[in-house]
Structures are given as structure tokens and as C-alpha cells.
Sequence to fold (250 residues):
Amino acid sequence: MMRNFIAANWKMNMTIPEARQFLHGFIPTVQSVQEDDIIIAPPFTALYAVANAIQGTNIGLAAQDTFWEEQGAYTGEVSPRMLRDAGCQYVIVGHSERRQYFSEDDVVVNRKIRATKESGLGVIFCVGESLEEREADKTFDVIKREVEAGLVEVSFEKLVVAYEPIWAIGTGKTATVEQAQEVHAFIRKILYNVYGDNADEIRIIYGGSVTADNVDNLMSSQDINGALVGGASLKPESFSRIVHFKKDIS
Ligand code: 13P
Fold:
């Protein structure tokens, strides 16, 4: 059976002492989880400290972004190789906040994904439509374009796709299970076109106002293989409850 993939995206939150305090509370509560992957994506500055604190636990580490070059004169940038060096197993690429505030387009996202995979790291590749696009009935066009463009010359190994409808991020407006399921099934179909049966190995996770209260419902959906959690991942209690989701089969 496929392992679920539950990831915390801390965004621009958490100093090193705050991250350590979070982990002090969080680690003991999730030690028993063997069947799913638990990943934390702290800001760059806390990566190394978090890597040390989670050593020997069942928690993995991700970065929130990367550059596509390996090294050189790129002031302010961080390469996949450096992220691996700091202890990362995954990198989040293509988050809508990067696309929106830093003008990252599909070509940039694809370059970053390829560079990340070339360095041996896994990718959490984010796609999602805006409210305007959803209301104009363009959801499937946008998703198809983003997924296909992002995955040009990208292999299926260590690839996780995150569906994050922009209108659901940080707004408290979660997609309904039906809305999420519909897009996840659509992404799965595109992945089959690109990778054939190997697509079976790719986790498709949902992000956008996931909380301790709605996670059970979302995770009961057949095509939702995990969650990418922003706000609700900043408190050990709520992220722990999310990691301990229960499939609601009623
Ligand atoms: P929220 O959970 O705060 O809506 O953020 C979702 C997200 O963007 C995760 O990457």
C-alpha cells in the first residue's frame, strides 16, 4: 500500500529556538507512526538545526525552495546540493506564493525540479488554480498546463505532487472533498499519460487550510495521498493530530 505523505510547510515562520521548542513537543507524539511519511519544511535558516533535532527519528526534512544552478555567483540563492548537505530529502518547488510574489513561471519551476532531482533529492511539486480561474471554469486547463510543463524531462522517482488551490491557502476555505478528489483524479490521469504504470508510485497530496478538524474527511478520499499543511503545522498539537488522521469511512 502507498505510504501517505504528511508535510509541514512552515513558510517564513520559526526561529531556531522556536523550531527546537516545536520539535521537543512534537517528536514524542509521532514516534509510533511507521506507515506514513512525516516531513517538515522549515525556513532555510533553521534547516540544519532541525536536521540535527530529528536525527534518528521518523521525521524527514524538506526545503521550501531552491535555485537550479549547483554553485556560483548567484547572490542570495541556495542550490539543491547545499540543501542535501544541510540534511534535506525533499524540496518544495512551484508553491503558489513563489509563483505569485517572485514571478516564478512554469519554465522556472521545471528548471528547479530538474536540478533538484539531479542532485538526488525528492520534489514536492505544487500546482493549483486561483479563484478567478476556478470561477472561469479554467481549473482543469491550469492544472494540466502546470503539471505537464513542470514535469518536462522529469522522472517519476521521489516525486510528490501537491494540489493547492490558491483560494484555499491561508483563507480557512478548504476545498470540499469532492472538489479535491476531482482534481486529484485528473492529476492522476495526467501522470499516467506521462509515466504509464510508474505513476502508481507518485503521491498526490492536498494543501489549503488543512486543519485537525478537516483532515480525517480529506484523507478519506481515495485519491488524496497526504497533506501539505501551512498554518496548522506551526503548533505541535495540531500538526500531531493531523499526522494521526483517521480515515473516515462512514
Ligand atoms: P495553509 O494550510 O496555511 O492554508 O497553507 C497551505 C500551504 O500553502 C501549504 O504549502
